[in-house]
C-alpha cells in the first residue's frame, strides 16, 4: 500500500496515476466522490481525461475496502481517490467509528492482490475550523492519515507537483 498526501492541487492524483502505470497495465481508479452538482461533474470529467482509457473506473463512495477485496485480483494497481472525500461521505452517512473504518480500509489495501495507492488531503495545516462538523472532519482526516501512513509501505508528500518520499 502506498499513501500519497498533500494539499489541494498539489499533484497527488497525477503522481498516483503515474505510480500505478509503473506497476502494470491492468489498472483501476476508485472514485470516492459523489457527483451531486455541476462543479463536481466537471471535476470528475477532468479527472477522467487525465486518466485516459487505460483505467477501469469504479464509483464507490462508502465501501471502498469491500471493493478492494472483491475486485483487487483483477488489477495490477488500484488508485483510490480520495480518502478525505471518503471520510466526508462516511460522516454524511452517519457512520460513527471512523477509526475502525480506517483500520479496515488499511487491512483491505494491505491484503489486496493489486498495489493500492491511496490519495489523501492534508487538511490540518490551516486554521481551526469554526464549526463542530468541520473540526470533526479535520480531526478524523488527521487520525485516518496517521493510521494509513503507519501501515503503508511507502508514503509520499506532494508539494507544488513535486513528490517528497516520507517513508519506504
Cα separation of the termini? 11 Å
Poorly predicted tracts of residues: none
Relevant CATH superfamily: P-loop containing nucleotide triphosphate hydrolases
CATH topology: Rossmann fold
Largest sheet: 7 strands, mixed
Tally of discrete structural domains: 1
Tell me the helix content.
40-55%
Structural class: alpha/beta
Tell me what the CATH architecture is: 3-Layer(aba) Sandwich
Number of strands: 7
Fraction in beta strands: 15-25%
SSE layout and pairing:
Layout: E1 2-6, H1 12-21, E2 27-31, H2 38-51, E3 55-59, H3 64-71, E4 77-81, H4 83-92, H5 98-111, E5 115-121, H6 132-151, E6 154-159, E7 162-167
Q: What can you see in these coordinates?
A:
This protein has about 170 residues and is α/β, with parallel strands linked by helices. The chain has one domain (about 1-165): P-loop containing nucleotide triphosphate hydrolases (Rossmann fold), CATH 3.40.50. It contains six helices and seven strands, in the order βαβαβαβααβαββ. It has a seven-stranded mixed beta sheet, with helices on both faces. A hairpin with a 2-residue loop joins strand 6 (about 155-160) and strand 7 (about 160-165). Helix 3 (about 65-70) runs parallel beside helix 5 and helix 4 (about 85-90) crosses helix 6. It is globular and about 45 Å long. The mean pLDDT is about 95.
Amino acid at each position: 500500500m502506498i499513501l500519497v498526501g498533500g494539499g489541494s492541487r498539489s499533484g497527488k492524483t497525477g503522481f498516483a496515476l503515474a505510480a500505478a502505470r509503473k506497476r502494470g497495465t491492468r489498472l483501476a481508479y476508485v472514485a470516492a466522490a459523489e457527483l451531486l452538482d455541476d462543479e463536481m461533474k466537471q471535476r470528475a470529467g477532468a479527472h477522467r481525461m487525465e486518466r485516459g482509457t487505460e483505467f477501469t473506473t469504479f464509483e464507490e463512495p462508502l465501501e471502498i475496502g469491500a471493493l478492494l477485496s472483491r475486485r483487487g485480483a483483477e488489477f495490477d494497481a488500484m488508485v483510490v481517490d480520495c480518502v478525505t472525500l471518503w471520510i466526508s461521505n462516511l460522516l454524511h452517512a452517519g457512520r460513527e467509528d471512523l477509526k475502525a473504518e480506517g483500520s479496515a480500509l488499511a487491512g483491505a489495501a494491505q491484503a489486496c492482490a493489486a498495489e493500492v495507492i491511496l490519495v489523501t488531503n492534508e487538511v490540518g495545516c490551516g486554521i481551526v475550523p469554526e464549526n463542530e462538523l468541520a473540526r470533526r472532519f479535520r480531526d478524523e482526516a488527521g487520525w485516518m492519515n496517521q493510521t494509513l501512513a503507519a501501515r503503508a509501505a511507502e508514503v509520499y508528500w506532494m508539494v507544488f507537483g513535486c513528490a517528497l518520499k516520507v517513508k519506504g
